[in-house]
Known about the structure:
alpha/beta
Amino acid sequence: MKQLMPLALGFLILFCLPMSAQDLSVYQKKHFVKNGDSLPYRLLLPKDYNPKEKYPLILFLHGSGERGNNNESQLVHGSGLFLQDEVREQQKAIVVFPQCAANSSWAKIDVKGDFGNREFIFYENAEPTKDMLLLEGLIKYLKKNYKLDKNRLYVGGLSMGGMGTFELVRRNPKMFAAAFPICGGANPNISKKLGKPHWWVFHGAADEVVPEKCSGDMVKAMGQSGINVKYTVYPGVGHNSWDNTFEEPELLTWLFSKSK
């Protein structure tokens, strides 16, 4: 029994260290309320935050699996990237993770077929969802209540949030300096409205949930429109291509280098 104690203690330390290193409580719990509707969101302020100093804004939109109203699930993917000491010290920004309601989405989308043979129907000019309107209201609120560098507003998202990234830029074509949708997609006909930001699009080649074609068609149309777009496809990677994206060593350097 005594021989097992050091081993058990070792495992305890091993599993506790990552948990302490990723203290998600640093993301403040907030709610944006408009006309009786509420949008939960988590807010990460820079280290040594100075309310008189201007900061870039990074808005990250989660996927369908993180919808709800617990104001926690939206941090499952991506939040740890912005908690790294090196990032918080060298690339200071205000980071916001809003949470879409369980019965809503960031953009109007329809789906036909089963996994492995899915077809997404993306609309060219659909009415905004309730959560898209709340999201746009939240952005206005953040602009009013925090000193944001309006030339350095960034948006990204994964899956449903990648689709929401395209939709948010379509609806606000002059707002963002850069955008990075992951395993998302949109109607290629909206490309003419996406020309202001710099784009870096990501997708897994083996994605059976959102086929790579959804991003590939967008990138092709954007390129034909003369838009500044990079495209990274991960061979053999399925829907969780966000894991690869968050490990891209140049992602944040690229993002923070962009300005309107």
